[in-house]
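Hi everyone,

Forwarding the result from last night's run.
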Amino acid sequence: VLQTAAFFATYTLILPLITTHFGATAAEGSVALLLFGLTGIAGNLIAQRVSLHHSADRLLRIVMVTMMLVFIVIAVIGVLFWTDMFRLGLLFLLLVVWAVMQDVFYPSQLRRVVGLEADYRGMVIALNSSGIFLGIALGSGVGGRVADHVGLLWLAPASAVLTVLAFGALVASQRLIGRMQGAPATAGQTRECTVP
């Protein structure tokens, strides 16, 4: 929920952000969104390949750390007095990274939660989908409130804070699962989860 909220806190108002603070025209803003979408298609292929070589937990950590950096850099370049062309080019590059990370995040998160409760796969998938929609709603709401009260330049910092919270939740969850798996199983509580 929190990482999806982090994505959408900024993405919901990305077009006003880049036209107002990065000097983009409406056409350039449309190109930025098109680039984000096209990169997302390629990102699916990348996500498929990296998932064969890395655990879901590792990929989630990589995504969150990368997105923290992306949001911080977006916030910084939004206030620097460099030429608009340079800042816009850098933003386009960051959007490419963002699109790929987002494509790696969703299947990795799903793979993680299904792996935790493989016997209840259908319910877990449904809950994961609900979590995505909740995250979209939360992020959009946060982005709207931030833009209304402190301005568009604070969208990326808000997303960075949400990403830090998501990372903290992931680490806490991993530690809890580690403790639960390390605890001695009592009679009747041991079960084997297998994914066909």
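DSSP finds seven helices and no strands in the chain.

Cheers,
N.
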